[in-house]
Amino acid sequence: MIPGPDTAAAIATSRFGFGARPGELTGVAGDPRGWLLEQVRKPYQPSAELDGLATGQEALSEFLQGRAERQAARKDARNDAPDGAAKPPDPVQARLRPLYQAHAEARTRIALASPDSFRERLVHFWANHFAVSVDKQICLAAAGALEMEAIRPHVGGRFADMLLAVETHPAMVTYLDNQQSVGPHSEFATRRARRARFDDAARQQRIGLNENLAREILELHTLGVDGGYHQSDVTTFAAVITGWSIGGGEGRLAAGTPGAFVFRAPLHEPGAKTLLGRRYADDGFAQGTAVLRDLAEQPATARHLATKLARHFVADEPPAALVDALAHAYLSRGGELGAMYATLVGADAAWDAAPRKFKTPVDFIYSSLRALDGAPRDPKQLLASFELLGQRHWGPGSPAGWPDREQDWDGADALMQRIEWSVALADRVGNARSAHAAADGALGPLATPSTRSALAHASSGAQALALLLMSPEFQRR
Amino acid sequence: MSMSTRRSFLGSGLALGAGGALATLLPGVSFAAASGAPPFVVVILRGALDGLSAVPPYGDPGYGQARGAIAIARPGADKGALDLNGFFGLHPALPGLHARYAAGELLVVHATASGYRERSHFDGQNVLENGGDKPSGTASGWLNRALGALGPGRADGLALGQNVPLILRGPVPVGSWAPSALPDVEPELIERLRDLYAGDATLAARLDEATRIDALASDEQAMAGDGMKKAAGGIERLKAIAATAGRMLASPQGPRVAVMDAGGWDTHAGEGGADGQLAGRLKGLDQVLESLRQGLGAEWSRTAVLVCTEFGRTVEINGTRGTDHGTGAAAFVLGGAVRGGRVLADWPGLAPRARYEGRDLAPTTDLRSVAKALLKDHLGVPARALADVFPGSTADAARDVVRG
To answer: Which one of A177, A415, A466 has the shortest CB-CB distance to B206?
Structure first.
């Protein structure tokens, strides 16, 4: 059933976007579907918030410099160690932390202010699909750069382009340890083997493949875990992408612009390779890009992406017909993401007035701050919310990204933390906002009579705001 | 700000004497009766712990060869393994566990695996937690089903974190708890939310669980006076959580079963040997388990803790001084209730032909047989219920895991 325009506007903003800002529903109600699709159709325009943020190359270069300083400091400390002296700050952390914070603040401010919050949600969705987690220190500043450089420009474009941009981004290459992966028959390995006949140290130092990036591209980024590949495909693919590295490292990784993606031909495993039944000629770097392009066209990839997209927007266990339709749209339109979005937005199943998704902490924080126009000015305070509620920016802790089902987020303690956070926010916003007006502005007709009644009987304006944020219909989308 | 104000949350409810509020608060305050099960904790190490480094089989002739620069030296050597039985040792960053072994309170399990035989972390963790042999299709966790089999009131479950991991999800309601840095809220607001959630079964249940756990946690924290290091992340936070969890488990009103997560074991590059990346993680784990033991106090003597991971890592190191995803893993069972001081392993050997698919430590002990023993002989889950707790597993419960 297609809901009326006011209800559809509330669904469009909360289910597809990051929640309505005051007054936003009125503008959306004219054409909710058109409002959504226009956001992904128009050409990419980088937000001014992104000006001056560290690129991936800069972030990795800072890491390399910080690491060199750390090693030098350790050597000094060993040479003359003052007993009981205060530990100096870690130079890597000192260099990367401000860059991370700047990226995180920009991401948050864009999400809170954007009139294109469907597009912003998709940015978050794809960044999470290609998750790089900042708990690995080398990625602390580069994770935000990956989103800025490899995700944002391609959100309205082709998946294959996004895939290529991500897998050749220095953040992904280092997050999944590919920079030192060496082909067993590469020029480098052959030289090493020759030297090892005379040199004990060279013999000791083992070199070879690292299969981490290859495995996760197949399992998480493209085909999916049931996509029909085997361990031998993982190993072969790892050989295909040997040499995908970054510049400015130590030893065999020294050449190249520090922190930038480089293809190191001497590390690359030579020869044609057969992967998933297809033969790839000995094309150096292009061998890997050819595999990626083919992976992007696989029906298993289409189904994997379709399932995740439908799960994110419609229901934890999405209707099979919708997944089929999304996968079909993807395959029949050459991997155009816009075709999937149009199918999604056009599907009746996506417009059920009963919400089926429980908000993640990020959803909840964004939609609360948008509804109350209550973002704190202090960046530290702004970012603290994400830590407190358990979802700091780019911090899922694993390449699988943040989970996307209700039971991953609806723990008893998680609920209590949301209540406490809502009270703190409501106390700060105080009586400046009427809870009824906020309910009209954020939920429109989705606000239930029992919530309206609770707001009316609250003991203070602040308590009413907290009740609104914690109401069942605001906790879901 | 302070955690101990959660204590006053309960206190003020009583002081107010608001009839309705009191009535709804009180039934939730008490957990299972003291007549219930002894404490049981599962610690899940996410990311695949390298069992060959945590529990080096230094007596295997293939070990040093396969591990090269990251091999742990033999006991007695500089930074060598802490000896267990003349063949296996413990990583030198695990002195606390070694002391438990010496005290007869640590059973080391090696070459063990769940029913999962592929190499995806995420599927591997699903199988480890759902207790089946497929990653999907089972929405509940084996520990929740075990609580169900025990029957109501015998043992309550608690996830140590904001949310509940799969192993503890299911039909039996369980709580979750982690220290909060936010101020507590007025009981009156909680009551209003209770009304507002009348039509939402999930939120209503979560709110009930949250209020009773908070009351207990604040009591334990206040008594311990250990002022949770809220700002501290990583290992300090885990240690503080473990200590408080230990006291909650030891409380007569407390939960009996708890689950804790620790990540960061996916050591593909620069894993390190006696020092380095993995050594740092192991040191933290050792301290967390010690904090748990101290939190439990005298109850430690009745406790069993299972420390497990989704799978092991390759026998050979890879080209970047790390290890890739493997199969056979190590696990620890510790506590005063455990028949420890032993290594439980049917050692397959590390020679290439002995390996699983030519690359991984072959799994010879079904981890589910150890878990079954803990459920049956420690928690008191009826033997006939184990087939539902671990569907698809025909492995018998291991013998003599806990003291009779």
So the answer is: A415
